[in-house]
C-alpha cells in the first residue's frame, strides 16, 4: 500500500479494533515499516538491511501495552471503534511502539543486557554481524553504535508515523501535549535510574520516583491521556484517566520488578535475576535493604549489597537473594503496595461514568498488568 494511502486511509479495511488491539497494532506497524524499509533500500541496501533488524525487533514480540492504553483512552474519551477517525487513531497509537522500540534498544545498551524477549539484543546481534564478516575495528563498538543509530531511527519514525497518521489538525494538536511530556519523562526516569545506580541510592522514595516517570507516566498515564486528548475528552474524563493511570502505572512497574527477580524467563524474556545483575535500585531491593537495617540483619544486608550489580551472579546466588527478600518482608511490602495502588485506581474508575466498553476494558487491563497470576 502506498504511503499516501496509509496517511489518508484509502484502501484501509475498517475493523473493530476493540476485538484484538495487539494484532491490529502489529499489522499497522508491519504496513508502515514495510514502506519505510523500502525507502531505506533506495538509499543503500546495507541501510535497508539494518532497518530490517528494527522491523524484526518491533514485530517479534511485545504485549502492545502502550497502544492498548492509548486506544482505550480514545474510546473512553468518546472516540469511535470504526471509520476513518478510528483508523487514524490506530496508526497514531501504533506509533507508541516505535518509541518503545527505541527506548528498549537504548535501555539494553545502558544495562549491558545480552538478551531481550528470548533473543540476542540489538547491540549483540550487530556485534556478531561484524565478527562474522571480519570487518575492521572492534565488534563490540560496532554493535553499540549500530544499536544507538537504530534506536534513534525508531524514535524518528515514531514522530513520522504520528504526524502522518491522518489525525485531524485539532486532534493532533491535542495529542502532542501528552506525547511530548511522555518522551521527556521517560528519559528523565532513565537518567535518574542511572544516577541512582551511580550514587547507590537505596531509598524507597528514589525508587518510586523513577517508577513514576519511567513506568507510570510512560506506560499507562500518558498513553491514556494521549488517546483521550485525541478524542477530545472533557476535563473530568481526563482527570479520572490521569489518576487511574498514575496508580496503575506504578503498580505495573512494581509487578515487573518482582518478575525481574522471581519471574520465569520463559514469560519475562530475560534471565531470572537480571535486574540484580544490572544493579537496579528497585523498590523491592530498597525495601529489602531498609528492613535488613531495621532488623539489624547484617548477613542479609551484606548479601543484598554484594549481589546488586554482580554481573556473574549465579542462579544459586539469585535464589539466596530471593529467600532474603522474602524473609525480610520486602516481597510482602511490595505486594501490599501493588494492592493499595490497584484498589485506588479501580476506585477512581468506578466513581467515573466512562462509556462502555472502555470501562470494562480498563478493568480487565488492570488485572492484566498488576496481577501476579495474570
UniProtKB/TrEMBL annotation:
Renumbered to this chain, the signal peptide range is: none
Q: Which domain of life is it from?
A: Bacteria
Q: What is its EC number?
A: 2.5.1.1, 2.5.1.10, 2.5.1.29
Cofactor(s) the protein needs = Mg(2+)
Q: Which GO terms describe its molecular function?
A: (2E,6E)-farnesyl diphosphate synthase activity; dimethylallyltranstransferase activity; geranylgeranyl diphosphate synthase activity; metal ion binding
| Keyword line | Magnesium, Metal-binding, Transferase
List the GO biological process terms.
isoprenoid biosynthetic process
Q: Which InterPro entries match?
A: Isoprenoid_synthase_dom_sf, Polyprenyl_synt, Polyprenyl_synt_CS
Reply yes or no: does the keyword Glycosyltransferase apply: no
Q: What family does the entry list?
A: Belongs to the FPP/GGPP synthase family.
- This chain belongs to the protein called Geranylgeranyl diphosphate synthase type I
Amino acid at each position: 500500500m502506498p504511503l499516501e494511502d496509509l496517511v489518508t486511509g484509502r484502501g484501509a479495511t475498517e475493523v473493530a479494533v476493540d476485538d484484538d488491539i495487539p494484532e491490529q497494532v502489529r499489522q499497522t506497524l508491519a504496513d508502515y515499516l514495510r514502506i519505510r524499509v523500502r525507502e531505506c533500500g533506495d538509499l543503500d541496501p546495507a541501510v535497508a538491511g539494518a532497518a530490517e533488524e528494527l522491523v524484526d525487533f518491533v514485530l517479534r514480540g511485545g504485549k502492545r501495552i502502550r497502544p492498548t492504553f492509548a486506544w482505550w483512552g480514545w474510546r473512553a474519551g468518546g472516540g469511535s471503534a470504526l471509520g476513518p477517525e478510528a483508523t487514524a487513531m490506530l496508526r497514531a497509537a501504533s506509533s507508541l511502539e516505535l518509541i518503545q522500540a527505541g527506548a528498549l534498544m537504548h535501555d539494553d545498551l545502558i544495562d549491558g543486557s545480552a538478551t531481550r524477549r528470548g533473543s540476542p539484543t540489538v547491540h549483540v546481534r550487530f556485534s556478531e554481524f561484524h565478527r562474522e564478516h571480519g570487518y575492521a575495528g572492534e565488534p563490540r563498538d560496532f554493535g553499540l553504535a549500530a544499536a544507538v543509530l537504530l534506536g534513534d531511527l525508531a524514535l524518528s519514525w515514531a514522530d513520522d508515523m504520528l504526524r502522518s497518521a491522518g489525525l485531524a489538525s485539532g486532534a493532533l494538536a491535542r495529542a502532542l501535549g501528552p506525547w511530548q511530556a511522555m518522551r521527556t519523562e521517560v528519559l528523565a526516569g532513565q537518567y535518574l535510574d542511572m544516577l541512582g545506580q551511580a550514587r547507590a541510592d537505596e531509598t524507597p522514595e528514589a525508587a518510586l520516583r523513577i517508577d513514576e516517570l519511567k513506568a507510570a507516566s510512560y506506560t499507562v498515564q500518558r498513553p491514556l491521556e494521549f488517546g483521550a486528548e485525541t478524542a477530545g475528552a472533557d476535563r473530568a474524563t481526563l482527570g479520572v484517566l490521569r489518576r487511574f493511570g498514575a496508580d496503575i502505572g506504578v503498580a505495573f512497574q512494581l509487578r515487573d520488578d518482582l518478575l525481574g527477580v522471581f519471574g520465569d524467563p520463559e514469560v519475562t524474556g530475560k534471565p531470572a535475576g537480571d535486574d540484580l545483575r544490572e544493579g537496579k535500585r528497585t523498590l523491592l531491593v530498597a525495601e529489602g535493604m531498609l528492613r535488613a537495617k531495621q532488623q539489624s540483619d547484617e548477613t542479609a544486608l551484606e548479601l543484598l549489597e554484594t549481589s546488586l550489580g554482580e554481573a556473574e551472579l549465579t542462579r544459586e546466588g539469585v535464589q539466596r537473594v530471593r529467600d532474603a527478600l522474602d524473609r525480610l518482608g520486602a516481597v510482602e511490602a511490595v505486594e501490599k503496595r501493588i494492592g493499595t495502588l490497584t484498589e485506588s485506581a479501580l476506585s477512581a474508575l468506578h466513581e467515573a461514568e466512562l462509556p462502555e466498553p472502555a470501562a470494562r476494558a480498563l478493568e480487565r487491563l488492570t488485572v492484566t498488568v498488576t496481577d501476579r497470576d495474570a
